[in-house]
Design brief:
Number of helices: 11
CATH class of the largest domain: Alpha Beta
Strand content: 15-25%
Helix content: 25-40%
Number of strands: 20
Strand order of the largest sheet: 1-11-15-19-20
CATH superfamily of the largest domain: Adenylosuccinate Synthetase, subunit A, domain 3
CATH architecture of the largest domain: Alpha-Beta Complex
Radius of gyration: 22 Å
Largest sheet: 5 strands, mixed
Number of domains: 2
Bound molecules: guanosine-5'-diphosphate, 6-O-phosphoryl inosine monophosphate, magnesium ion
Shape: globular
Amino acid sequence: MVGLQWGDEGKGKIVDLLTSRYDCIVRYNGGANAGHTVQVGTERYALHLIPSGILSPGKINIVGNGVVVDPEKLLDEVDGLRKRGVAVGSNLRISDRAHVVMPYHKEQDAALEELLERKSGKLGAGQIGTTRRGIGPAYSDKVRRSTALRMGDLLDHALLLRKLETICGLRMAELEALGANVTPLVPRELADRFAAAGEKLRPHITDTVYLVHDEIKAGRSVLFEGANACLLDIDHGTFPYVTSSNCSTLGIPAGSGVPGRMIGKVYGIMKAYSTRVGGGPFVTELLDETGERIRKRGREYGTTTGRPRRCGWLDLVAVKYSVMVCGADAIACTLLDVLSGFDELKICVGYRRADGTVTDRFIPDAERMHGFTPVYETLPGWQRELTDCTDRDDLPREAQSYLAFVEKFVGIPVELVSVGPERTQTFESNARFASMA
Ligand code: GDP
Ligand code: IMO
Ligand code: MG
């Protein structure tokens, strides 16, 4: 299950819904930059590191080796869930090889963003617009190796202290070079603090690669919960305005230890329009009152940072590319209800370059997308609210045509439709909305 746009497609809601059909739910990438909202009745949960399956009893929820874990944030999340009556115990497993996000990673993240902002003066001209959750610096340390810490290291105080003694001096120098206002990093203090967090998490920390393979061998089914989304993938997204992990389905094998050939059906989650948070190319962005209307109706404010999301029309050039990269078999279309009330709706089917030529190919490179404008098809809108629809036949004819257009353009069926944040506001459409001829 993977996001086909720039994140916030409603993955949390769809995972929560699909969880009943699976035994294990696995996160394979990202960290606390993700914010997955699940609404159960009037209760709203915002999950960042813990798989959304945690809200369904009897499931095994795995934080895989490809995730970067902020242990204190994770403990806060566990506490928050327990306070609301959600059981968190042996149903939560964390890879001993997942890398640790430390406080200095968050400082580095913020310091670098601020430095770039000071230098360029505006978002999108160097500054990424990160969530400042320390994601980039933590993955940088993973790749750099000698300055990395993994969850298993938190379980051995002496080892942790030894590693931190090397890391802290170097990190101080780096932070100072970035112009950050650093409080001295004291290896022993950090070792005590994070070994204490490790002790609390000890019952959950394990070799999740064997765990997930044991589950598969025992005939149990696994749902991989993508965080962030395909167009934020470090290799395949709108570089450099991306996150630091492989958040397409291509991240599943490396981030969980499950080979690609064992993966079955891939659901791509697509919201009925487009949003993105932070900098980077966004060809269909609406900077007018239409964008504002979508933002208000869709409550498009970040789950993690509260930032207003940039909003625009549906970009099918981008979605079709993500479907190809992720090998998506079917689409779950979310937030369709937000589009009620427009006289007409636009869908982007091509990009016009600055020289006037048109392409139907996505170009995952911010520099090379510069100056692109959308080529739109215009479809009739519908006025009726969709929030009570329970079947595809219930949808206004124009909404059915909108989905049929998506299916035809992208080449895979829309199998799930979501018309509101609640579990119940979803229906399956086993039959396609349009013949694929
Ligand atoms: P995620 O990061 O992909 O899990 O998505 P977020 O949770 O960050 O953002 C999606 C938002 O849309 C959340 O506030 C959801 O409660 C909400 N949502 C999900 N599906 C629907 C839908 O079909 N209609 C409406 N109106 N809201 C939805
Ligand atoms: P979910 O799982 C939306 C964006 C950030 C920023 C860029 C890099 O909720 O869909 P980072 O902190 O990862 O270094 O930021 O990526 N970003 C997301 N945008 N939803 C997300 O996750 C995101 N995760 C990262 O806004 O532009
Ligand atoms: Mg989100």
